[in-house]
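assembly run, all chains below
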Amino acid sequence: MANEIFVVTEHLAGEVTESSLELLAMGRSLAATTGAPVVAALIGAPPAAAATLGGADLVLVVGDPHLSEFNPEAHAAVVVALVNEREPAIVLVPYTSIGMDLASAISVGCELPLVSYCRRVTAAGGLAATCQLHAGKVEADVAVQGDRAVFAVLSGSASADDGRVGGAHAVEEIASPVDLSGGKITFIEFHEPVGGDVDITAADVLVVVGRGIDSGENIELADELAAALGGAVAASRPIIDQGWLPKSRQVGKSGLTVKPKAYLAFGVSGAPEHVEGMRDSSTIVAVNSDPQAPIFGVAHYGWVGDLFDILPELTDRLEG
Amino acid sequence: MNIAVLMRPVPDPVEELEISPDGADLDRDYLGYVVNEFDEHALEEGLLIKEQVGGTITVLAPGSADEIDDILYTALAKGADRAVKLGTDVGPLSAHALARLFTDALSDIDFDLVLTGVQAADELDGQVSVLVASMLRLPHISVVTATEPIAAGVRVTKEFWAGITADYEVTLPAVLGVQAARQAPRYVAISRIRQAQQGEGLVEADAVPPERGSVRITAVRLPEAEDGAEMLGGDAEAAAERIIEILRAAGVVQGG
Ligand SMILES: Cc1cc2nc3c(=O)[nH]c(=O)nc-3n(C[C@H](O)[C@H](O)[C@H](O)COP(=O)(O)OP(=O)(O)OC[C@H]3O[C@@H](n4cnc5c(N)ncnc54)[C@H](O)[C@@H]3O)c2cc1C
Ligand SMILES: Nc1ncnc2c1ncn2[C@@H]1O[C@H](COP(=O)(O)O)[C@@H](O)[C@H]1O
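ok done. output:
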């Protein structure tokens, strides 16, 4: 089916992700424009998991012992073979840890153009997308030459609930279209997250520091404000990678998703990977010295200035 | 183990960005560049492997700007053995074109492992790490947070989400897209960088910029802060006072 909308879904241990459902929602709205069917590929999951994918007209469940845990090599080989066989017009891939191993492999393996960091994909009058570049600072409208392409879509670009709905769909269980023996990558084991001293998902108030905090010693300033507010300190990824706070304090794509009553961000730029984990907080206040920082796009209140001026000021006032 | 590290400059994220007159790019005349932060982690992971099992590190970076020399000399000062500057002026490249440039250069290099950052902020049309691997038909793993050299190749930790990771074993040659090194990238003294500048570690290789490909930017916008947040204005004291009112309204500060 040459005009098909092909959605690469993902799962971890059989649990289909929200990002997959978001892509189905996006696929459905593209289908409303092009009239094409939405076909979801579910690779290595138990067939029962297909029941979640209500937004698809057809779910292809690919079964093979080499596929039950995510394997970048095996999963990419299967998706490339399916796309080459079905020749869909539009391939939607989640821009997640799994999709990042697939999208570019499809582009090369199927000789298709690829648009990454997509927020919106449209098909009326040619394939086009709106993308978020430079860690959210720049929005770009992008046109694809040709009538087929792969789109890697950022999480949160459509409503997962819209992807969950849908009537009865067809489920087809198929064997792997390629021989997966003799692979160069072997899955060994999963590791669950290590628990932390503080549960940042349970706090009503989070004082969140980003790279603007400048040094590990300065985290103390955030500790003091958090103590005055009865809240907890969380951070963006670079703070964890520097070893200034434990992994259990990380908010975002590869960390935790938080929804506190108040989220106070100091020196956090607001990259999409960070925003993914905090955008549903009830009240977001951001302090950043850069007026173009994308965090101001998700914050409810913002102040442009030096965090070292305002952080101690807040603590003093609350303690005073 | 012989390691190739692919590094690229990206526009400095803290600099003020402006749109080019044609509205379809950033105004590059005034843009400062820094090394892609994830590539720094890739280099660090490479240095750690070299410390464990020996071997060589070759660093490749595209472009002609002075920033490229800075990136490459810094890598040499940190412990890379050789640095290759690709192309006299390759200009802004798409990820596909950049990957093609790297794969061409890699054909002259003896490597077991290719390390590069998992993504760059301006990779509109794909990730260089996976593109390079796919073009060379090598196995790849993205979002890598640790490696461990083993007899069969490398044991690799890949991060998924919510703190979940998985370990894989991969035979060599292979390409890894590094998210974060096992430890924060090391600092290096300016004196060491000056020393590297005196040495012979950096070579220039001619490179033909590949075609830009089939994805075209038609318009670029800088989303305005005002579109989102209510900006508080005033000095730190005034803003602090307003923030406390806001927290009171949010029900997380008592009294008044
Ligand atoms: C696969 C993947 C997963 C990721 N997962 C996550 C994740 O879970 N969580 C996460 O946070 N990131 C994640 N990232 C990283 C993400 O892309 C960004 O690199 C990161 O969020 C940036 O952190 P930051 O805002 O602290 O730093 P930067 O982007 O460097 O921003 C620092 C900000 O501080 C401001 N600043 C500097 N000094 C001051 C001052 N004195 N006063 C006020 N403001 C100041 C600057 O203007 C700047 O806006 C992930 C990336 C990838 C590729
Ligand atoms: N700059 C680019 N942007 C998006 N897609 C591209 C780009 N360059 C190549 N492609 C696509 O990727 C396929 C494989 O690229 P290549 O191996 O470079 O020929 C091509 O057939 C194109 O459709």
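The radius of gyration of chain A is 22 Å.

Residues A 107-108, 111-114; B 94, 96-97, 100, 125, 135, 212-215 surround adenosine monophosphate (ligand 2) (CB under 6 Å).

not gonna interpret more than that til we talk
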